[in-house]
Amino acid sequence: MTCEPRTDASGELRAASQAQPNIALIKYWGKRDAALNLPVVGSLSITLDSLWTRTDVRFVPGQKQDQVSLNGRSDEAEAKRITKCLDLLRACAGVDYGAEVASRNNFPTAAGLASSASGFAALVHAGARALGLDLSLEEQSVLARRCSGSAARSIFGGYVEWAHGKLADGADSVARPLLDSEAWPLRVAVAITSTAAKQVGSTEGMRRTAETSPYQSAWIDTQEADLSVARNAILARDFDALAQISEYSCLKMHALALAAQPGLLYWNGATVECMHRVRALRQQGVPVFFTVDAGPQVKAVCAPSAIEQVKAALRDVPGVLEVLDTGLGEGARAIAADLVEA
Ligand code: PMV
Q1: Other C-beta atoms within 10 Å of 294: how many?
Q2: Residue 6 has pLDDT above 60, yes or no
Q3: What is the predicted pLDDT for the residue at 198?
Q4: Residues 108, 195: contact at Cβ < 8 Å?
Q5: Ligand 1 within 6 A of 326 CB?
Q6: Confidence of residue 338 (pLDDT cuts 50, 70, 90)
Q7: How far apart are the CA of 209 and the centre of ligand 1, in A?
Q8: What is the pLDDT of residues 51-63, one digit of tens each?
Q9: What pTM value is reported for the model?
Q10: 24 lines ligand 1 (CB under 6 A)
Q11: Distance 117 CA to ligand 1 centre (A)
Q12: Which residues lie below 8 Å from residue 323, measured CB to CB, with a gap of 6+?
């Protein structure tokens, strides 16, 4: 990636962007380079539409510190990650201005709903524009990846594949769109089973897994085959094939993490019951499958015609607090700054 220093600094260095979480159908778990957030495996995801992060970034010449507000509050740990991400953008632009960042999610943060993916995709998209950097979407995806791996995928909409790449500097570990959301507009029901922040974050979970799980090499060795099946299923709009491979990848990732020491158990009882309900529906002929990330929420991906039935079935599971409903959406994009606080 080349970053041309900004030469025409004039006016307010401010921009706002929106990005949505993505949900991996073929999971990313494990880093080949923790500093650069390079994955040991490729992954494939869908970008959602009605859950979002909206972020307003304003660089202030002469300001030393960044000021960060997340959902109207300050959060020291997140502010540090945001400053590291802003540092990448400042290095690209050749400036040292502090920034004021206001960011808001319309869904629970850090509970396995990929808030870091939408958060860093929105931050990179807005920050790059605020500094007048002329970055392609792929270049933005590379920067977003360095802040949070899966954020690389939220720069793009629809069905997105992120390659693990082989190069040490990660130049070939880029996300690319595979198919537009309108080309196969699946729906997703998200069963919220807890709003508590997860106890073990994905970075620590991946580190522990790589160091202690006996299944790590099998995970890496079998990923390319899974990606190929999923890619073909998406391009052929073959729901059953996508259902089989997605549940397989999800359960394989959790089996890998469960076998770490100490084991990573991201599910609660309602998570498991939701998975059973989804499988029962599919056995009755309803086109639906589940996937679960590093948290207790269950995402049920289904054909548009099945969404009401899927939502009703999940709502009925004891321990399910709420069921959200979303389609597939676009990638990161510019918005008016007043939408962030609205
Ligand atoms: O990008 P991170 O560090 O939030 O890790 C994401 C890991 C999973 O959500 C479990 C899988 C994935 O591919 O998104």
Answers
A1: 23
A2: no
A3: 78
A4: yes
A5: no
A6: confident
A7: 13
A8: 999 999 999 999 9
A9: 0.94
A10: yes
A11: 8
A12: 189, 190, 191, 192, 311, 314, 315
**Among residues 46, 27, 117, which one has the least CA distance to residue 302?**
46
Residue nearest to atom 8 of ligand 1 (CA): 293
Q: What's the rounded Cα separation, in Å, for the pair 267 and 229?
A: 26
- Amino acid 137 reads L
Question: What single DSSP character describes residue 198?
Answer: P
Ligand 1 pocket, residue 150 CB under 6 Å = yes
Residue type, 298: V
C-alpha 111 to ligand 1 mean position (Å)? 12
Q: For residue 48, give the amino acid letter.
A: L
Q: What is the pLDDT of residues 103-153, one digit of tens each?
A: 999 986 655 677 889 999 999 999 999 999 999 999 999 999 999 999 999
- For tokens 């073959």, what's the residue? 238
Q: How many CA atoms lie within 13 A of 219 on its CB side?
A: 30
Joined tokens for residue 172: 């070939």
Residues 6 or more apart whose CB falls under 8 angstroms from that of 19 comprise 52, 53, 55, 117, 118, 119, 121, 122, 125, 154, 155, 331, 332, 333
Token pair, residue 319, equals 């321990």
- The residue assigned the tokens 């960060």 is 68
The whole-angstrom separation of Cα 311 and Cα 324 is: 8
Is the distance from the beta carbon of residue 30 to the nearest atom of ligand 1 less than 6 Å? no
Q: What is the pLDDT of residues 171-223, one digit of tens each?
A: 889 999 999 999 999 999 999 999 887 789 899 999 999 999 999 999 999 99
Q: What does the DSSP 8-state code read for residue 122?
A: H
pLDDT tens-digit map of 267-291: 999 999 999 999 999 999 999 999 9
Is residue 46 classed exposed, middle or buried when 0-12, 13-18 and 19+ CB atoms within 10 A define those classes? buried
Residue from 27, 148, 219, 226 to probe ligand 1 pocket by mutation (most atoms less than 8 Å from CB): 27
Out of 293, 297, 298, 299, mutate this one to test ligand 1's pocket (max ligand atoms within 8 Å of CB): namely 293
